[in-house]
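hey so u asked for the seq, here:
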Amino acid sequence: MTAATSSSPKAGPLPGPAGATGPGRTPGHDPRRRAQRRRRTVAVAFVLPALLLLGALVVYPVLFSVGRSFFDAGGTRFVGGENYAEMFRDPATLKAVRNSAIWVVIAPTLLTGLGLILAVLVEKVRWATAFKLLLFMPMAVSFLAAGIIFRLAYEEDPDKGVLNAAVVGAHDAVKGSSSYPTARARDGQGLTKGPDGSYSTSGTVSPGGQSIALGLVGVPPKELPADARPARPAASREAGPGELLGVAYLDFTPGGGGEQGRVDPEESGLPELTVEAVRDGRPVATATTASDGSFRFPALAAGAYTVRLPAQNFAPPYEGVSWLGPALVTPAIIGAYLWIWTGFAMVLIGAGLSSLPRDVLEAARMDGAGEWQVFRRITVPLLAPILTVVFVTLVINVMKVFDLVYIIAPGPVQEDATVLATQMWLVSFGGGNNQGLGSALGVLLLLLVIPAMVFNVRRFRRSQS
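ran it, structure tokens below
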């Protein structure tokens, strides 16, 4: 009995699991628990400033905007869902939704495709790093600066806008331009303007007989062609049989003087004008004026003719494309956005491309697959995850685009280019002064962005697991 009693549990506490109370330990003084609490305290201390900033800069504005969207423009009267109903009755808002949809469909698709193509091609380039740096440099430019750059580039005046300067140069090289768009004839000086803008002699002339003088005004002397020479009176030359002579000249004497309707010694000829001999309403011969303005029809049949200066001589010059007009303003702004973000897409996709298993690509080539087949059937499927991430990231970004649209689009076409972000600003602060409707637009924009953000976060978590 004594032995049994001495071995009973009352003899003292037995060693228990880690953390249990034992000799020298009191509840709440476990070193491991103290270390865990210390780590939690340090973690909270580091995270708390970020949480406070997140709450002040994100959570509070979101909650405030949601609440504000249920009040009127002044914020004093509760209107319920009236702002949301008004939002979809407003034509400007519907246009903003349509333009945002265009942005979401076109811009991320083009950027992802361009990034993929450039990432694949850069691998074949010797100076790949320099090429990537060159394409990525626009990312260092702010949207404000990029907007100003492209606003200037899209100027309709070819003397200011580089794009229209190139377009006009290419057009004039192919089709040519009118020689004297501002020229006109003096009233009562023997030339009659036709309904199509051409000028014809009031009377008729015959070959071998009287020569004619076609005087024009309205051409600044400094805008005359470089090869223009002083005009020679047509009467100073003799016309042979079947020949009709004439001169086209600027009926203006620098410094004053001279006689209207008469070729004076200091008056310049008008070179490169097209002249037609017309009989029975149809042109039968064509000539081009020389540097002194003279022209000659050498072999005309006997009869009466009218001399005509076709309208093409006086057509207004080609001014290029109206990049910032209502029809092209949205594609033009998307083009500026592509310039900025193509480098981003290329670098991100290039990083994914560099991690692809090269043995798979080489095996496909050894099996006889061409480069196009390798690209379409192996490279693109393997890059599908990174392509999706790039696409969704760009979708989120274009939903919030504001700077480029606001800066590039001129005032008269601002409504044609507006997107949800710019419409929200215009309604709230840009003249509308309706923060209730603006808050409703902000909530709509948030609701449209959230699904893409959730998709991106879930995909990122799946890639990490």
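The first strand starts at residue 184 and ends at 185. Residues 1-14, 16-21 have pLDDT under 50 and may be disordered.
lmk if thats what u needed
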